[in-house]
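Budget justification note: compute hours in this period were largely spent on complex prediction jobs such as the one shown. Inputs:
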Amino acid sequence: MKLLEVNSVSKRFGGLTANEDVTFTVDSGQIVGLIGPNGAGKTTLFNCVAGYFAPTNGTITLAGRDIGGLPPESCARAGVARTFQIARTFTSMTACENVMTAAMLSHRHVAAARKSALEWLAFANLERFADKPAASMTISEQRRLAVARALAIHPRVLLMDEVMAGLNPSEVKEAVDVVLRIRDRGIACLIVEHVLEGIMPIADKIVVLDRGRKIAEGTPQQVAADPHVISAYLGD
Amino acid sequence: MKTLLSFCVCLAAALLLPAFVDASHLNLAILVLMAAQLGVAWNIVGGYAGQVSLGHAAFYGLGAYTSTLLLIKFGVNPWIGTLAGGAVAAALSLAFGWSCFRLKGHYFAMATIAVAELVQIFFTEWEWGGGAVGLNVPMDKTGWAWMSFATKLPYYWLALGLLLVTLAVNLWIERSWLGFYFRAIKDEPDAARSIGVNIAPYKQIALSISAFFTAIGGSLYAQKELYVDPNSVLSTALSIKMALVSILGGVGTLFGPVIGAVVLTSIEEFSRIVFGGTGSGIDIIIYASLIIAVAVFYPTGIVGWWKGFARRKFANARAVEPSTKNASGGTGSNAVEVAS
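Corresponding output:
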């Protein structure tokens, strides 16, 4: 079933075209990787889907509902959660309070929000940090905290921006493990990633962008063999 | 638990205080309570929600003027006038927020100064409202029914009661979803939006609640001093004092503004005694030095400094707790401290 449909989306900033006519879909329960060289327009496209930019042209629908151009908070309520390149932890709070704040979208009462937050912390292997100040956690832990926080709004699709960048191999493995368990919950994942070793083995589909355009789409094996992709990454 | 105990001790001291002090010290105690209440009210928007307003005197003045004008011109009971003043200030805060919340950070703070100045100029020019001369609050009806007394003691109870109510509202905010959303907006506005928090209305809610309680403090001031004019209730210096009480004590903490008010009001009165009340500006120099010292050395205020101090002390004793944000070292440094 098609969950997220990105249809002919273009985004221009004045004369600069960041995305041109990009089309792809994410099915429910699917892991889709969005890759491409630096400056390919991955993060811009991501921000269009999450509501931080309004697309110049094209439509974005979530389960049939048009969400293109809605502000981020409305996209979140519609079922789009996201994480950022930097963790953007709420530093005045404990880890649990970070997740509780997100859980409050559906549980206004603090006790109910805490119960839900503790479940998501456990899901991200962070329960031992629950009542510790979030700012004292490592980068890798804060990234997973951001994932737990995003999941606490009960999204239908989770957008992750470079969730594995800068992590060591064992931390990448832990992050991969979390992504797989997110899919097991029936939540679709759209992942922008530079760390190809992390994303290639787990993605159901890879979408490759270069200079704002989609140059390839398919299974990781198909994409890895595609001459366009190879030339985009290695140069002509 | 420890906080609750300290609060009970402080409350008991506040309840017993009038039995032990003379009239002038009682007046000082009232000033402390009133400054604390203003700091606590300011802290809702300036501390928890992180929107530093330097225009809160506008709300204070509106409260003072509304209750006084209603009493003088229409004979309205000050208790009703006080609530009306709160409502007027909360209503004005909508225009205040609509115009100023388009800006962020320092620009927001500067815009709030401008709006407050406009309000001050309006009241200075408004003849029906007393103009630059100000208004005298009549004392023909006294007693609790008319919130007007010949002695200081009842004002002490009023100021203490108002402070406790404002603290209770802050405590409720801190423990409810509002407090979580305010802190999220302060820490990371973009991340707050990503989890469904619509920022603009929440900033406005914080400002309106804060404006309401600031205005009630203004009405109490008018009833106590029996005189209001634009300079005494609408000046920028007053706005700065409300912010400073909170910043000195610790922004975004429940009792920070109370501690800040005790310290700041004492310094203010002390400098007045030592240097004379000749308008020499010494107190303002001390204010400025304090702002610089707090900003440079203890950005988290007295409460933040104390927490850091207590944590280091207990960490050495128990060798467990990790350090938090703003502590000088990261997570790793504790192990070193413990080992040494």
